[in-house]
Amino acid sequence: MNNILEHRTWRYATKKFDPNKKVSNADLELLLEATRLSSSSYGLQPYHVFVITDQELKEKLKPVSWGQSQITDASHIIVFANKTDFGPELMDDYLNNVSITRNIPAESLKGYGDFMKSKLLELPVETKSTWTEKQAYIALANLMQAAAELKIDTCPMEGFEADKYNELLGLHGKNLNAAVVLPIGYRAEEDETQHYPKVRLPKEKLFTHI
């Protein structure tokens, strides 16, 4: 089987992690770098990523995660928090980074900056938040695939109380909102779901060639 398909077939939403198996620092750095390199609209990356290993905090997060054991048993909990609102500083900071990274004059980027601002700044706050959340999901997908390549298990989770996460992570007042949670680690042998055949739509129903 092609490696790309092998990785996607191997991974599943892990229901039970082995709490005694931890992701190494080296592998964690690879996963975080893959996340950092993820694509995003205009390259703006309007989110922040929290990496949680503190067991006491994980215990506090579990009750507000529908009591799911992945929160306390996984090696690390990755929380993607999207920006709930933004102003011109989001684009200005990005363009300053472009100027430094590519060693080009900042003034040469003004036209692109004005274009981005014309498309984004006048959006309603709710629309901005939806857009930034979508960008976080792109990064989530990249992290999940990188983990599968390393044979590290993941379980993307929307089953949590975002407001409680925001409180426990100190996000209130920081213009951030917990969008999606990803426990990472290694599957427990007794997790029966790892043996279930993967259920997906047949390609005849999913794809239309025009």
List keywords for this structure.
flavoprotein; four-stranded antiparallel beta sheet; oxidoreductase activity; alpha+beta; 12% strand; NADH Oxidase; Nitroreductase; 210 residues; NfsB-like
Q: Would you identify the CATH architecture of one domain? A: 3-Layer(aba) Sandwich
Query: From the helix content, strand content and strand pairing, which structural class follows?
Result: alpha+beta
Q: Would you tell me which CATH topology of one domain applies? A: NADH Oxidase
Distance from N terminus to C terminus (CA atoms, Å) equals 28 Å
List the helices and strands and how they pair.
Layout: H1 3-10, H2 25-36, E1 47-52, H3 55-61, H4 70-73, E2 76-83, H5 88-102, H6 110-120, H7 125-149, E3 153-154, H8 162-168, E4 176-185, H9 203-206
Antiparallel strand pairs: 1-2, 2-4, 3-4
Helix pairs in contact: 2-7, 5-6
Can you put this structure into words, describing what you see?
This protein is an alpha+beta fold and 210 residues long. The chain has a domain at 22-86 and 125-184: NADH Oxidase (3-Layer(aba) Sandwich), CATH 3.40.109.10. The protein has 9 helices and 4 strands. The protein has helices at 3-10, 25-36, 55-61, 70-73, 88-102, 110-120, 125-149, 162-168, 203-206, and strands spanning 47-52, 76-83, 153-154, 176-185. A 4-stranded antiparallel beta sheet has the order 1-2-4-3, sandwiched between helices. α5 (88-102) runs antiparallel to α6 (110-120). The longest helix is centred in the middle third of the chain and has 25 residues, at 125-149. The protein is globular, with a radius of gyration of 19 Å. Residues 10-186 form the Nitroreductase domain. This is Nitroreductase. It comes from Croceitalea dokdonensis DOKDO 023.
